[in-house]
Amino acid sequence: MIAIVDYEIGNLAAIANMFNRLGERCEITADPKKIKNAAKIILPGNGAFDACMQGLRATGLIPLLNEKVLNEQTPLLGICVGAQMLGHGSEEGNEPGLGWMDIHVKRFPALPDLRVPHMGWCHVKKATSDHPLFEKLGEDARFYFVHSYYLATTHTEDVLLKATYGVEFAAAVGKNNIVGVQFHPEKSHRFGKQLLGQFAGELS
Amino acid sequence: MIRARVIPCLLLRGHGLVKTRKFKDPVYVGDPVNAVRIFSEKEVDELVILDIDASREGCEPNYELVAEIAGECFMPVAYGGGIQNLAQARKLIRCGIEKVVINSASIESTGFIREIADVFGSQAVVGSIDARKTLLGGHRVFVKSGTVDTKLKPEDHAASLEQAGVGEILLTSIDRDGQMQGYDIELIKKVSSKVNVPVVACGGAGTLDHMRRAMSESGASAVSAGSMFVFYGKHRAVLINYPTGRVI
Q1: What residues in chain B have their Cβ under 8 A from chain A's Cβ atoms?
Q2: Residue B244 lies in a domain
Q3: Looking at chain B, which runs of residues are DSSP E strands?
Q4: Is A68 within 8 Å of A41 (Cβ atoms)?
Q5: Count of domains in chain B?
Q6: pLDDT tens digit string along A106-119?
């Protein structure tokens, strides 16, 4: 079962909807027993960074997630702010992140004609590091982004996909069993469906 | 590469979809769930669904229908009509939509916009402005589906919506609605030069060229249209369509 961590943030129904279409078992849950038994975990996130971290902390699930992800090596996919939370923190707020990856989240620079938030469809390209999750990603793959802050890391080997909006940024980061995508696969038609299918099927 | 969003805007009345002209004479164009399913299959960039009776009649959003529609959408969906508080926004987002569209209620107060943005983020709140050209050549904001004149200037109202926390502005020209003769470039220019959030132009699109012009000449970040995506040919036969492989 794929657990979609529920801390009452964002549109979780959309993620479940995509897995249901794929015929994959998933559950939107904050129940520690269910998350403990989950084969894979989705960490969603939407809106303000601090609100997300506070919301997640309030569920009391962070120690369990640490255990699952760092010790048991359960595959985890962070989406949008869920990906930003994998790192140390964000310029958007003061809350520390989960610290699983060496990522800092930065605000898009103030450039003329660059409207923030970055909202819309964007093509991505593979970075130097390969990851099984993006193995079958087509050349034409595009995804829906909506964010004012982006994933930044000095560890180029952790960058899996790149995209450009004023600056080049990491569209996906990952390390072993942990992957984070800045875009919304659950809202990216067949491209996102393929990606979530790959997450559900291959990364076991 | 930045790909500009092209967004069908669908109008809901009761359980059916309609299309208006200058916000009047709604013509039935089909079943919303079925239409949304077709748009999803056509891989539209995004969808806006507006209940045009809700604010005027003061009724609650039809949550069941919203959930049914959202279940067909593998792209972002914005929903508007009658939204006045955080509780409604929360319920709608739980139904499976990404964004709530605020229009009429923002005239009374913008406090609830800040509340929604604080919980769900600015990207989840769209400030919608319907504007009509005045005889003297200016523009004024109208609410409740174009029936009430607020006397506000669209650019000023847009700035206060941005201040209140909306993540984008959906700007509709009432005069151009359903005309398919092109957007109100002047109106879009006024608003987009006054705010930094993306402005989505709506009202008047008949061709892809109109859309290109709205973006290159007036600073719109994205374009929306109704008639162009639900009608076909000069007799306005109902046919759901969406440009594929387009370059805007």
Answers
A1: 1-5, 40, 43, 45-46, 67, 70-71, 73-76, 93-98, 117-124, 167-168, 196-198, 221-222
A2: no
A3: 2-3, 5-13, 16-21, 24-30, 47-51, 77-80, 99-102, 125-133, 139-143, 148-149, 168-173, 199-202, 222-225, 231-232, 237-238
A4: yes
A5: 1
A6: 999 988 878 888 99
- ipTM of the modeled complex: 0.89
Per-residue model confidence as pLDDT tens digits over A124-175: 999 988 899 999 998 889 999 999 999 999 999 999 999 999 999 999 999 9
Using the Cβ of A28 and the Cβ atoms of chain B, whether some distance falls under 8 Å is answered with no
pTM assigned to the model: 0.93
Residue of chain A whose Cα is closest to the Cα of B222: A120
Instruction: Report d(CA B181, CA B230) in Å as an integer.
Output: 16
| Within-domain flag for B10 | yes
| Active-site annotation of A, residues | 80, 184, 186
Q: Which amino acid is at B173?
A: S
What dihedral angle (degrees, nearest 10) is formed by the CA atoms of A78, A161, A100, A74? 60
Residue B31 designated active-site: no
Question: Residue B240's pLDDT band (boundaries 50, 70, 90)?
Answer: very high
Provide the terminal-to-terminal Cα distance of chain A, rounded to the nearest Å: 11
CB < 8 Å to B96, chain A: 11, 13-14, 17
Gap between the Cα atoms of A75 and A94, Å rounded:
27
Q: Please report whether residue B245 resides in a domain.
A: no
Tell me if B215 is assigned to some domain: yes
Amino acid (1-letter code) at residue B220 = A
Q: Judge whether A117 is closer than 8 Å to chain B, CB to CB.
A: yes
* Averaged pLDDT score across all residues of chain A: 94
Residue B11 belongs to domain spanning: 5-238
Task: Give me B173's structure tokens.
Answer: 């020209």
CB contact at 8 A, B106 and B161:
yes
Q: Which chain B residue has its CA at the smallest distance from A6's CA? A: B94
Report yes or no: A143 and A184 within 8 Å, Cβ to Cβ. Answer: yes
Q: What CATH number is attached to the domain comprising B144?
A: 3.20.20.70
Two structure tokens written together for B213: 């012009």
A186 and chain B: CB distance < 8 Å anywhere?
yes
